[in-house]
Write a structure and sequence with these properties.
By secondary structure, this protein is mainly alpha-helical. The protein has one domain: Four Helix Bundle (Hemerythrin (Met), subunit A). Helix content is 68%, strand content 0%. The model is unreliable at 1-5 and 16-33 (pLDDT under 50).
Length: 169
């Protein structure tokens, strides 16, 4: 995980620097070094249907490289799958300090990649932990964050002919 509080440029450098080392952190779910062009194009088209994803902002961050954008989104999901499970557990235990750190980390990465809804949820969770809000509210936010990350994962892995899932309000 990149250091908390690092800049957007540092986050990008961190994500791209560990291309070869990523496999050891991904629970044997490697991200291909390159995604076939047809699949990238189709994936980007489908990603435009994802609620809370600003595809244009994400593409601008990576110099309009759809291949890199898809790889980074996939990496983000894989790196944070375990984190969102931990966030739910930390929210249930009301471990505010740890919850705050994880939420803050996810918020920065999500915002950088144009994942506006995930970044917003992580921000709300970070603020709820800081403000000593009720455990029930933090658990609700944590579970929503977990569901949204799972939905993004499905968008990234679904077959081209599959219909996109609808986000639950």
């Amino acid at each position: 995980m990149p250091p908390i509080g690092c800049s957007t440029a540092a986050t990008f450098a961190w994500v791209t620097r560990y291309d070869g080392a990523f496999d050891s952190f991904s629970k044997n779910k490697p991200v291909p070094a390159t995604v076939p062009p047809a699949l990238v194009s189709d994936t980007v088209t489908r990603l435009r249907l994802v609620p809370g994803l600003d595809v244009d902002a994400g593409l601008a961050f990576v110099g309009n490289s759809a291949d890199v954008f898809v790889r980074l989104l996939t990496r983000f999901v894989r790196l944070h799958e375990a984190d969102v499970q931990q966030i739910v557990g930390q929210a249930e235990r009301a471990d505010r300090a740890w919850l705050q750190r994880l939420a803050h980390s996810i918020k920065g990465g999500a915002a950088t990649l144009g994942l506006t809804d995930l970044a917003g949820l992580a921000h709300q969770l970070d603020q709820a932990a800081r403000a000593d809000e009720s455990g029930a509210h933090m658990v609700e936010l944590a579970r929503t964050l977990q569901a949204d990350l799972a939905a993004l994962s499905k968008y990234l892995t679904q077959e081209p002919a599959a219909q996109p899932a609808q986000r639950h309000p």
